[in-house]
Design a protein that fits this description.
about 5% helix; about 575 residues; mainly beta
Length: about 575
C-alpha cells in the first residue's frame, strides 16, 4: 500500500470561515489543527485539518482535502495511533504500521518503514482502537475486550508488551464500536446507539480493573452515525447518513457524566468516504474550574476538569455529579438504575449572576446528603417506614382508598401525612380515608414540595408554585419545558436529565389532556429510560414493571402516551 502520491482536492465541502460562533474551550487543550483522515471509495487517503476541535466551528486549514496516499481500500480496518501514527489491518489479518510525519500540515510525508507488518491475526475483531500511547484495545466476536501495548509506536518496531492479548473485560457483545479517550477512557457504542463510558485504571500495564461509573450510559442516538472516531478528551467526529460531518464533544470524558456540548455540523459531502478517523492523541483534558455552556443552553460547572454540576437557566432543579454510584431498585422489576447524579433544588431559578450561585455550589458539590431521587425512593413498593416526632413522613405509599371502580385519586401529600396544610388564608384538611396514600401529583408534591421545599398551591394556578393536578403542573408550574411533543410522543430522550417531571396522556376518557405525572430517574440496566410515578394499577409509587412498565421506550402504555418533560 503506497503512502504517498500527488495532492488532490477531496469531495467534502469545506470553508475556512466559521458558520457558527465557537464554543469556549473548557477543561480541554487541542492543537491549532487536528488531523482528520478520510478514505474514499477508490482507496485514496486524504487529509483534513480541523481548526477548532475545542469549539466545533466549521473551520478548516488550507490544503484540507489533499491526497496523501492511495491503495487504502484493501484494508479491512484503519485507525489512528495518535501523533500521526496510523494502524491498518489488511484482508489477511496482518497489522501494519504507518506514521504520517506531515500530520499537522497535510504534507505528503511519511516515516521510514511505513507499511511494515507489526502483527498478525487481527482480522477477526469487531473493532480495534488505539489510545495514542501504544495501547490498543480490541473487541472480539465473543464480547471480550483485549489489551495490547505496542512498545514502539513512534518508530514502528515489532515488539509488544508482556501480556498483550489479555482479556480485560467481558460481556461486550452488544457493543459494536469503540472510541478511545485518554488515560484509559473508552467509549463503547452498542446496537441501540447508546454510548457507555468505561475507565480502564491500568492502561499501561493491562490490568483488568475499571473505575467508578464504568458501564454507565453517557450518550444516546449514536446509531445515526457511521464511522465515529475520537480526537481525545471527548472530542468526536462522525458522519451521518446524509454525508454531513458532525463535531460532538462529551463534556466530562474523565468521569463519564452524561453531559455534552451542543453538536455542530462542520462539513458536508462526506458520504462517499468509507472510513473517517481523527488523530486520537490530538486533544487532552485540562484541570479547569469554572462555567461553560453545554447542550440546550445548560450551564456546566467544572471543578478540576470534571463536570460537578449541570444547571439550567430559569430552572431550580440542579444535577450534581459525585464520585460514588448509587443504585435504585424495587422488587417489582429486575432492572436497576445506577447513577452518579444527585438532584437538588437551588434557592431560585439558575443564573450565573445570582448572588447565591458561588456559595451554593461550594456548599453542595460533593455532598451525599438526601436528594430528590433518594426522597422519591422512600415511597415505592417495600420502602421502610420513617418517623419524625411521631409523624410517619415516608414509607411504602398507597395510591388512594378503594372505591367501586378501584383506587380513587385525590390523595395529596398532607393526606398521606394526616395533617392540615395552610395556603395563605386557606387550610386544606386531610382526608382520613386517604391516610398513607399519594396519587400521581400528590407524590410529586410530597417529593418536591413538602420534603424539598418547593412552593405549592391549590386552586387556580398562579404560575409561581407547584399546583395540585398533573394537567396544571404541565401548563403552569414554574420551570423550563425541556421536551414537548404536543399531542404526540416526543421523538428524542436526549434532553432528559434525572429529576425532570414527565407528563402523559395515559387515559382514554379525557381527550388529549395531560392526566399523569412522574419523575425521570435515568437509563436503567437494560438501557431503557426509567421513571417513578404513583399509579392506580400498582397501588402507589413505583419504579417497577407491575401494573405497567415504568419505561418511556418499550412500546407499552407509558411509552406511547408520554408527551412532555419539565425541569422545575
Amino acid at each position: 500500500m503506497a503512502a504517498g502520491s500527488a495532492a488532490v482536492l477531496g469531495a467534502a465541502v469545506l470553508t475556512v470561515a466559521s458558520a457558527t460562533p465557537a464554543q469556549a474551550a473548557v477543561a480541554l487543550t487541542c492543537p491549532a489543527t487536528v488531523p482528520v483522515y478520510a478514505i474514499d471509495g477508490d482507496g485514496r487517503l486524504k487529509w483534513y485539518g480541523h481548526r477548532d476541535a475545542g469549539g466545533g466551528s466549521w473551520s478548516w486549514a488550507s490544503g484540507s482535502g489533499a491526497q496523501i496516499g492511495h491503495g487504502w481500500h484493501g484494508f479491512k480496518r484503519v485507525f489512528s495511533g495518535g501523533n500521526g501514527v496510523i494502524y491498518a489491518v489488511d484482508g489477511s489479518g496482518y497489522l501494519k504500521w504507518y506514521r504520517h510525519t506531515g500530520a499537522s500540515t497535510g504534507a505528503n510525508t511519511w516515516a521510514s518503514g511505513s507499511g511494515k507488518v507489526i502483527g498478525h491475526g487481527w482480522g477477526g475483531f469487531v473493532d480495534v482502537v488505539a489510545d495514542g500511547t501504544g495501547v490498543i484495545y480490541a473487541l472480539d466476536a465473543d464480547g471480550n475486550l483485549r489489551w495490547y501495548r505496542h512498545l514502539s509506536p513512534t518508530t514502528g518496531g515489532t515488539g509488544w508488551a508482556s501480556g498483550s492479548g489479555t482479556v480485560i473485560r467481558t460481556g461486550w457483545k452488544a457493543i459494536t464500536k469503540l472510541i478511545p479517550g485518554r488515560d484509559g477512557v473508552i467509549f463503547g457504542i452498542n446496537t441501540k446507539g447508546l454510548v457507555r463510558w468505561y475507565k480502564h485504571l491500568n492502561p499501561s500495564g493491562g490490568g483488568s480493573t475499571f473505575g467508578t461509573g464504568t458501564g454507565l450510559v453517557t450518550g444516546e442516538e449514536w446509531d445515526r452515525y457511521r464511522t465515529p472516531s475520537g480526537a481525545g478528551a471527548g472530542v468526536f467526529y462522525a458522519v451521518d447518513s446524509g454525508g454531513r460531518l458532525w463535531w460532538e464533544r462529551h463534556a466530562d470524558p474523565q468521569a463519564g457524566a452524561p453531559v455534552w456540548y451542543e453538536r455542530r455540523q462542520i462539513g458536508s459531502g462526506w458520504g462517499s468516504f468509507t472510513s473517517v478517523f481523527a488523530d486520537v492523541a490530538s486533544c487532552a483534558p485540562a484541570s479547569s474550574t469554572g462555567y461553560a455552556t453545554g447542550s440546550g443552553g445548560r450551564t456546566l460547572y467544572y471543578v478540576n476538569g470534571r463536570v460537578a454540576a449541570v444547571l439550567t437557566p430559569g430552572a431550580r432543579t440542579a444535577v450534581l455529579y459525585g464520585t460514588t454510584v448509587r443504585k435504585f431498585s424495587e422488587s417489582t422489576t429486575t432492572a436497576t438504575v445506577s447513577t452518579r447524579a444527585w438532584v437538588r433544588l437551588l434557592p431560585g431559578p439558575w443564573s450565573t449572576s445570582a448572588s447565591w450561585a458561588s456559595s451554593w455550589l461550594s456548599a453542595n458539590v460533593g455532598s451525599t446528603s438526601e436528594d430528590i431521587l433518594e426522597i422519591a425512593s422512600q415511597y415505592i413498593t417495600g420502602a421502610p417506614d420513617r418517623y419524625k416526632n411521631g409523624l410517619r413522613y415516608a414509607g411504602d405509599a398507597h395510591y388512594g382508598p378503594v372505591g367501586e371502580e378501584g383506587r380513587i385519586e385525590g390523595s395529596d401529600f398532607n393526606d398521606y401525612l394526616g395533617i392540615p396544610w395552610k395556603y395563605g388564608d386557606r387550610v386544606d384538611e386531610p382526608e382520613p380515608d386517604q391516610k398513607d396514600s399519594l396519587d400521581c401529583s400528590g407524590f410529586v408534591r410530597m417529593v418536591y414540595g413538602y420534603r424539598s421545599g418547593y412552593p405549592m398551591e391549590i386552586g387556580t394556578p398562579t404560575g409561581t408554585a407547584l399546583p395540585r393536578r398533573a394537567v396544571q403542573m404541565h401548563a403552569s408550574a414554574p420551570g423550563v419545558m425541556v421536551v414537548d411533543g404536543g399531542t404526540a410522543k416526543p421523538t428524542s430522550y436526549a434532553a432528559l436529565q434525572p429529576g425532570d417531571l414527565l407528563f402523559w396522556d395515559a387515559s382514554t376518557d379525557d381527550g388529549t389532556a395531560i392526566d399523569h405525572v412522574g419523575i425521570y430517574l435515568g437509563v436503567d440496566s437494560n438501557g431503557k429510560h426509567r421513571f417513578v410515578s404513583s399509579r392506580k394499577t400498582v397501588d402507589g409509587p413505583t419504579l417497577g414493571d407491575v401494573g405497567g412498565h415504568s419505561l418511556l421506550d418499550n412500546g407499552t402504555l407509558y411509552d406511547r402516551s408520554w408527551r412532555a418533560a419539565k425541569r422545575l
